[in-house]
């Protein structure tokens, strides 16, 4: 059975209680900060996502360096979350920090370009194969900007996305399919402005006939995709899927936007470079800023020219694309240094090797205890899910979810000084993640699996 739920619920509840007690005993300083922080922030965190951790209170951080951080209770952690990719370069990478602090002392935001902007744009063009770039402060905003551009130049109203996609807090992308195949607002979507079927068509990942049907309606401006789903577990494309996507986008005049924010883990030019994909537009965010806010979006010559021809400079500041601090001098200095000196092709080779080691460690424990879970690697990123075979659609991946089981595994890891990405069973390798760091996870994961299945 591909998706057998974890059977021993009583045992899971008991194991959970043991880990909660262990957490409480080890983290009094975080508890203290939590109690103070709760007075002026909901759940004691600056953004509610940070409360979705396992355990009775959040872990408050003292200092982060490389692939590790130390919490306020003095516990060293191997960080396999890396800010859910924002710190994929490792924490405080020296080259990025030097460029950022240098630029900070020379002025950070001017509404004028610096030389770093052109250098960063040219590096992105070289990596992702499209020549014309603009900058934002987040991947979310890069996606939002491109969606507007595609509606502007095509004159069409809706976009298409994959079922169970995630592209940031972009209204149009919070759509999913219900059990009858209708487009509905995704579970948990906060305050949608309009019913989602007005803005969005949704197609299952790897489903070429569904995509053709969606495009045939004639009102789709853009197909916004991750080339592999990474936000509902990792779902890899079937052979030939991307060739079919490209062909259909061309045939129906749909702008193909590839969001590489997470799939950048596949290599120095993401999956676009690794799999020779041909998007009309590219989004990248999180990691490229070396730890500070930066996002970017690239376009082909043809698409960029169509966008530019449709815009009037007199109204450009009120058109709905851009932002006061977007493209600021510090972000651009950070991107230039991070791509040029930290997330290099050499660095990726080591990151991918580490991740192969991590994946083998997980697989070994699953084999030893005959556990019906699977693990999927995408370059420097890997994720296990609670089903026996790799999912081929987002909905298959979503149905393997087991929140209590996930919470236990996360807390078990945290109690052994290992942080894995919240909302996922995912690990990401930085250029400075070591074999010993990965081994710490391998040992702890085996112990967790043993507790559940032995
Ligand atoms: N695109 C993808 C593929 C992502 O995974 C995410 C964040 N998880 C985003 C966009 C949004 O990034 P941010 O929250 O930094 O805007």
From TrEMBL:
It holds the Pfam family Aminotran_3. GO terms for molecular function: pyridoxal phosphate binding; transaminase activity. Its cofactor is pyridoxal 5'-phosphate. Keywords: Aminotransferase, Pyridoxal phosphate, Transferase. The keyword NADP does not apply. InterPro entries: Aminotrans_3 (IPR005814), PyrdxlP-dep_Trfase (IPR015424), PyrdxlP-dep_Trfase_major (IPR015421), PyrdxlP-dep_Trfase_small (IPR015422). NCBIfam families: PRK07046.1 (NF005453). Belongs to the class-III pyridoxal-phosphate-dependent aminotransferase family. PANTHER family: GLUTAMATE-1-SEMIALDEHYDE 2,1-AMINOMUTASE (PTHR43713), GLUTAMATE-1-SEMIALDEHYDE 2,1-AMINOMUTASE 1, CHLOROPLASTIC-RELATED (PTHR43713:SF3). This is Aminotransferase. It comes from Marisediminicola antarctica.
């Amino acid at each position: 059975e591909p998706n057998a739920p974890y059977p021993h619920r009583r045992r899971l509840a008991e194991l959970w209680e043991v880990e909660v007690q262990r957490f409480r005993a080890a983290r009094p300083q975080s508890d203290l900060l939590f109690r103070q922080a709760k007075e002026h922030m909901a759940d004691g965190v600056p953004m509610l996502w940070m409360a979705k951790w396992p355990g009775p209170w959040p872990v408050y951080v003292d200092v982060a360096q490389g692939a590790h951080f130390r919490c306020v209770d003095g516990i060293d952690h191997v960080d396999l979350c890396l800010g859910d990719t924002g710190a994929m370069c490792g924490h405080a990478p020296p080259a990025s920090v030097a460029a950022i602090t240098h630029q900070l002392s020379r002025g950070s935001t001017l509404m004028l370009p610096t030389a770093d902007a052109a250098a960063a744009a040219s590096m992105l063009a070289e990596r992702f194969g499209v020549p014309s770039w603009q900058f934002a402060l987040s991947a979310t905003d890069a996606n939002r900007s491109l969606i507007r551009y595609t509606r502007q130049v095509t004159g069409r109203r809706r976009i298409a996305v994959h079922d169970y996609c995630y592209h940031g807090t972009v209204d149009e992308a919070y759509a999913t399919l219900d059990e009858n195949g209708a487009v509905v607002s995704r579970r948990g979507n906060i305050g949608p402005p309009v019913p989602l079927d007005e803005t969005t068509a949704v197609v299952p990942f790897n489903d070429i006939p569904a995509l053709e049907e969606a495009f045939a309606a004639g009102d789709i401006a853009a197909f916004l995709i991750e080339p592999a789903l990474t936000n509902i577990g990792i779902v890899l494309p079937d052979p030939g899927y991307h060739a079919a996507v490209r062909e259909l986008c061309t045939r129906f005049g749909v702008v193909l936007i590839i969001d590489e924010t997470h799939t950048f883990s596949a290599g120095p030019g993401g999956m676009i470079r690794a799999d020779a994909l041909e998007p009309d537009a590219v989004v990248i965010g999180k990691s490229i800023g070396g730890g500070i806010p930066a996002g970017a979006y690239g376009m082909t010559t043809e698409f960029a020219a169509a966008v530019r021809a449709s815009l009037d400079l007199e109204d450009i500041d009120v058109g709905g694309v851009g932002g006061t601090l977007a493209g600021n001098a510090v972000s651009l200095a950070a991107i230039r240094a991070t791509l040029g000196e930290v997330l290099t092709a050499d660095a990726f080779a080591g990151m991918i090797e580490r991740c192969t080691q991590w994946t083998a460690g997980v697989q070994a424990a699953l084999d030893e205890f005959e556990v019906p879970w699977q693990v999927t690697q995408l370059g420097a990123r890997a994720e296990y899910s609670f089903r026996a075979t790799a999912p081929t659609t987002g909905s298959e991946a979503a149905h393997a979810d087991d929140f209590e089981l996930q919470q236990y595994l996360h807390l078990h890891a945290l109690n052994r000084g290992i942080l894995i990405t919240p909302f996922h069973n995912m690990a990401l390798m930085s250029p400075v993640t070591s074999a010993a760091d990965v081994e710490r996870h391998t040992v702890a994961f085996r112990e967790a699996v043993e507790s559940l299945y032995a």
